[in-house]
Design brief:
Elements (H helix, E strand, L loop, with lengths): L1 H30 L16 H18 L2 H20 L4 H15 L4 H26 L8 H10 L3 H18 L8 H17 L4
Helix pairs in contact: 1-2, 1-3, 2-3, 2-8, 3-4, 3-8, 4-6, 5-6, 5-7, 6-8, 7-8
Length: 204
């Protein structure tokens, strides 16, 4: 266990340090094809402590559950959460892998049960987006976030899915007082892993 903790700490620190360079290269590649990104001034930031905390959580999940797939899912979600916090950028390849892991996990359960959970999870965000578009003519939730939400929804129980998203949105709204662009996937990561921890501890 100590070896895994050390490995996670080293990985999280390495990601935090090297991610700005990775992001810069990926961004440069997209800039060549996108005029819009050529005027983008936002750069990636380094958050070593945040990265360490994020990547230790999957270790806690595995310790409580001994569920490798769930731990891998949380680990992949941690990558997306960190990149969203650091650069408001979500790597497509990680999204696809995350969705694949959630679908593999779902295959052993009731499909309709999981799909209903995903629907309930996405619904509050979709309603908020619709309200923002109709009333303010503005998109309050980034389109990229909706690629992540189904995967998270598939990993929750239907009776808690909508509430979990409502808590995520409530925290995001509170954070808007201090943060101009709230990384919603980062917030969703902490609410989801907090939910999973409570489930594993028998609190739900």
């Amino acid at each position: 266990m100590i070896f895994y903790l050390v490995l996670i700490c080293v990985f999280s620190y390495a990601l935090a340090v090297t991610f700005p360079e990775i992001y810069s290269k990926a961004k440069q590649s997209v800039i060549e094809q996108s005029v819009e990104l050529q005027i983008e001034n936002e750069e990636a930031n380094k958050y070593p402590v945040l990265a360490t905390v994020m990547f230790l959580i999957p270790v806690l999940i595995f310790t409580l559950s001994e569920d490798m797939l769930l731990s891998i899912f949380c680990f992949l979600l941690a990558i997306l959460a960190y990149t969203d916090a650091s650069a408001r950028w979500i790597p497509d390849v990680v999204i696809y892998i995350l969705l694949a892991v959630s679908m593999i996990t779902t295959s052993s359960n009731d499909l309709m049960f999981s799909l209903s959970a995903a629907t309930f999870y996405i619904l509050p965000a979709a309603m908020l987006s619709a309200y923002g578009y109709l009333v303010r003519k503005d998109s309050w939730i980034a389109s990229g976030d909706y690629y992540v939400f189904p995967s998270i929804g598939l990993m929750t129980f239907p009776e808690y899915a909508a509430g979990l998203m409502l808590v995520t949105l409530a925290i995001a709204v509170l954070l808007t007082r201090r943060i101009k662009k709230v990384p919603l996937v980062t917030v969703a990561y902490f609410t989801f892993t907090g939910y999973q921890t409570c489930v594993l501890l028998g609190l739900f």
